[in-house]
Amino acid sequence: MIIRIWRGWTSPQNADAYEALLREEITGESVNGAQTPGMLGIDVLRHDPDPSDATQACAAKAADTAPEVEFSTIMSFNDWDAVRAFAGAELHAAVVPDADRALLTRWDERSRHYDLLSRDGNWKTLADDQ
User: Fold this and answer.
1) Is position 6 within any domain?
2) CB 10 within 8 A of CB 106
3) How many CB atoms lie within 10 A of CB 49?
4) pLDDT tens track for 7-56
5) Residue 111 sits in a domain of what CATH number?
6) CA 15 to CA 8: how far, in whole Å?
């Protein structure tokens, strides 16, 4: 299984609108294989800035901007062919529609991919790769 992780940031003022957009874009139909065969699911995370975000607070102060709200997506795919069906020929390029770009202040230009080794204590064996 391939795990694809991507992050984007938005202003606190646009965070609820971006979350609403994600809710519209990421529906049950988009994660059950109907739109993207081999996509097993997607998790969406939101992190609002808090006092423990010292690094972000310092960077925002230096840039004279407000701390940003971070969104992360963690997508699961059967294999690399399924990733290609979602991302296209540029496997690692971020997929960021125009509507998302209008609300985001910045985003990862490239997604990161991981081979899932264990879920809930069930480890993948070397024989699974053959």
Assistant:
1) yes
2) no
3) 17
4) 999 999 999 999 999 998 887 666 666 678 899 889 999 999 887 766 65
5) 3.30.70.100
6) 11
Establish if 18 belongs to a structural domain.
yes
With respect to residue 126, please indicate whether it lies within any of the assigned structural domains.
Answer: no
4 Cβ contact partners less than 8 Å away, ≥ 6 residues apart: 73, 74, 75, 76, 77, 83, 86, 87, 111, 112, 113
Burial readout 27-43 (b: 16 or more C-beta within 10 A, e: otherwise)? eeeebeeeebebbbebe
Per-residue pLDDT tens for 76-100?
999 999 999 999 999 999 999 999 9
Contacts of 106 (CB under 8 A, 6+ apart): 8, 9, 68
What is d(CA 46, CA 73) in angstroms, rounded to the nearest whole number? 9
